[in-house]
Amino acid sequence: MKNCNWCDNQFKATVSYQVYCSTICREAATKQKIASRYLHARRQKRIGKKRLCKNCQLELSIYNDEPICFECNINPSDVKKVLKEIKRMAKE
């Protein structure tokens, strides 16, 4: 018995080199590998290129997949909600 490399279920291999229990697991693993390689290739293309945040013009990391930086990506209404919650907790 072998363990599937995708879902970790035990299965009986029909050939010695089988690593996935079904075609569903094999296809899911293949899709994830392709997506991972694509993301890695996109990030490698960014090396040496200067990318700036669309809002504040701060230089972006090659690992930032968004066109804006983390600070600009924060939703102001969420910040207001958290501040109100903190103030409420402080009063108690």
- Model regions low in confidence, pLDDT < 50 over at least 5 residues: none
- Structural class, by secondary structure, is mainly alpha
Count every beta strand, where a strand is a DSSP E run of 2 or more residues.
Answer: 2
Work out the helix count: 3
Q: Tell me what portion of residues adopts beta-strand conformation.
A: under 5%
- The proportion of residues forming helix, as a percent range, comes to 40-55%
Shape: flat
Distance between the termini: 59 Å
Lateral strand order in the biggest sheet? 1-2
Count of the separate structural domains: 1
| Biggest sheet features | 2 strands, antiparallel
Mean pLDDT: 91
Q: Would you list the SSEs in sequence order as H and E?
A: EEHHH
- Whole-angstrom Rg: 23 Å
Provide a brief overview of the structure.
47% of the residues lie in helices and 4% in strands. With 92 residues, the chain is mostly helical.
Sum up the structure in keywords.
single chain, 92 residues, mainly alpha, two-stranded antiparallel ribbon, 3 helices, 47% helix, 4% strand
